[in-house]
Amino acid sequence: MQDIKETIDRDLLWLATAGSVDNGKSTLIGRLLHDCHAIYQDQLSSLEKISFKKGLSEVDLSLLTDGLSAEREQGITIDVAYRYFNTDRRRIIIADVPGHEQYTRNMVTGCSNADAVLILMDAQKGLTTQSKRHLFIASMMKIPNILIVVNKMDAVDYRQDVFAKIKQDCLSYISRLNIKEVDFIPVSAIKGDMVVFRGEAMPWYKDTTIIEYLNKIKVSLSNNEDSLRLPIQLTVRGEGEPRCYTGKMESGVLKKGDEVLILPSKIKTAIKAIFIGKKKLEMASAGQSVSVMLVDEVDVGRGDLIVRQSELPEKANEIEAMLCWMDNNPLEMGRSYLIKQMNKTCRVDISNVSYRVNIDNLYHESAASLRLNEIGRVFVKTNNELLFDAYEDNKYTGSFILIDEINKSTVAAGIILN
């Protein structure tokens, strides 16, 4: 029981991983899991048998993460998969993002909750267009900790000048992005150098291993210091009991007795009680899913937002946003889509594309539309007013997805600009 409590008490790090195809990302994640003792003996035995059948002299650690049989056969990773392991400092959830360019849309999904992103590059290839795309998305999504890992150092004889050249190329590109800080680590995932253990192949590198980096970076434990944002998901009423309104505390702190404002109706009321399940609380904070009882019997429904009078969000039916197009069919001007922002859904038109970003050189190019994996700045007009914050102020209230009204597929993800 003590071991379980110690594990729970460790803070949690959400780590997204991204890299071009064949950069060895699956092997790197497998190495992390293997060297952190996050693999059961029967898993390891199975990997040894499969590796032997493939004629390999060493265990193929990439098989740990290439979970689908189809992707194992093709040797590629297709979907975003989540892996879990612990260090002596914290619990870590890895979002394993596919490397193929056509799956770049999955990086937006994998990075949506990330505290850090590990971007993998091949020492033999250096900074590629796909690597630039990953850096741009990490910058756009305001991920606070960015680690560039230069893998396959064994393939270039662990040469310091190769690592230095890739680092310089990356820094030159990053200087034009909104990235304040980035770290670099040279590794050999297949040999294990600088992943969990330092190894002896790169005495010229004096900084941290990957696991040391993951243990030392700061993780924002909550959004408690941000403005109160409690979007209502459901209205619940038991027999003979007052109404309760449920939702997830996206930011801020809420206490019993607090005076609040219901938007968009602008009804003023106060918090009578707060519950998690049947447990009554004096206070709720960001990240908790709660039920609240109000002092007054008021009309509150799904999509409404509980805030403080002094911390109002923006309100408009026209916004500017950065949009990552995720559908095989291109954006059609004048076509009606659905926007889902918080718990609210309404019709929306994209009235104009200001520009499309050329990922290779970061130039802003004129565009009449956006195609799969393209990113651009757009004007969005909604049928109903949206309540929102700029993405840089609040990631939840400042982000949205677009949905095809006919087949209900998600076609784009967007972040709201100032």
From TrEMBL:
- Annotated Pfam families: GTP-eEF1A_C (PF22594), GTP_EFTU (PF00009)
The record's listing under InterPro entries reads: CysN_GTP-bd (IPR041757), CysN_NoDQ_III (IPR044139), G_TR_CS (IPR031157), GTP-eEF1A_C (IPR054696), P-loop_NTPase (IPR027417), SO4_adenylTrfase_lsu (IPR011779), T_Tr_GTP-bd_dom (IPR000795), TRAFAC_GTPase_members (IPR050100)
Enzyme class name: transferase
Q: Give the Gene Ontology MF terms in alphabetical order.
A: ATP binding; GTP binding; GTPase activity; sulfate adenylyltransferase (ATP) activity
One of the protein's GO biological processes? sulfur compound metabolic process
The yes or no answer to whether the keyword GTP-binding is present is yes
Which EC number applies?
2.7.7.4
| UniProt feature coiled coil, ranges | none
Print the keywords alphabetically. ATP-binding, GTP-binding, Nucleotide-binding, Nucleotidyltransferase, Transferase
Which residue ranges does the record assign to the Tr-type G domain? 10-222
**CDD domains from the entry?**
CysN_ATPS, CysN_NoDQ_III
Protein name as catalogued = sulfate adenylyltransferase
